[in-house]
Specification:
With 202 residues, the chain is mostly helical. The protein has six helices and no strands. α2 packs antiparallel against α3 and α4 runs antiparallel to α5. The radius of gyration is 18 Å and the shape is elongated.
């Protein structure tokens, strides 16, 4: 591994730290009503941009372990989870406000419920798929003797996914803040491990 590659990994780590913190901030700024004006598309559009940048940084950082089964399968699950999350953000941040502005009458409650259920289904799927990916990466990190980071990844991946799958947690605003904060904290920890990586002299 050369110095340039090491530098890329360190930068990927810094990006993961920044995007993880930004995710938490954006979730705390998330409006609790679809009548929040510009804040609804602003928060959700920003979260979508964060997702894209974060995936790129993850690919750069995780490929340093080699494209083995754990890394590759984990990346596919995380990618699928983030894609579902992007879909949920599109519905919640753009589709629902548009419906509320343009649809009225007797059909509005049914349409609103349908769109809401689609949003919730994608959000749950996203968290569960991402959680599986984090667990797969945690297994690989354990095998590389990064035990604390691995255990944290197991917790961040498994607990939210199990709580959602069992119905003990939902993806309404407060539940979403808890889930995304837990996952973002592990992304920050992962980024910290990349950012602290020492360059190897040529």
């Amino acid at each position: 591994m050369n110095n340039h590659h090491d530098s890329e990994i360190q930068w990927a780590g810094r990006i993961l730290i920044a995007t993880g913190l930004l995710t938490i901030i954006l979730m705390l700024l998330h409006p609790d009503s679809w009548q929040a004006g510009v804040m609804i598309p602003l928060v959700h559009g920003s979260l979508q941009a964060v997702i894209v940048v974060q995936v790129g940084a993850m690919i750069v950082g995780m490929r340093s372990y080699g494209w083995n089964l754990w890394i590759t399968t984990g990346m596919l699950f995380v990618g699928a989870g983030y894609l579902a999350g992007t879909g949920a953000a599109t519905i919640n941040g753009f589709m629902m406000p548009a419906f509320l502005d343009r649809v009225d009458g007797e059909a509005l409650p049914q349409i609103r419920q349908l769109v809401w259920e689609a949003d919730q289904a994608l959000a749950r799927l996203g968290v569960i798929a991402t959680g599986i990916g984090f667990v797969l990466w945690a297994v690989m990190l354990w095998r590389h003797a990064q035990r604390v980071l691995a255990v944290a990844g197991m917790v961040a991946g498994l607990i939210p996914a199990l709580l959602l799958a069992s119905g003990h947690l939902n993806m309404h605003l407060h539940g979403a803040i808890l889930v995304y904060t837990a996952q973002a904290l592990w992304v920050i920890a992962l980024g910290w491990s990349f950012a602290r990586r020492k360059p190897i002299a040529d």
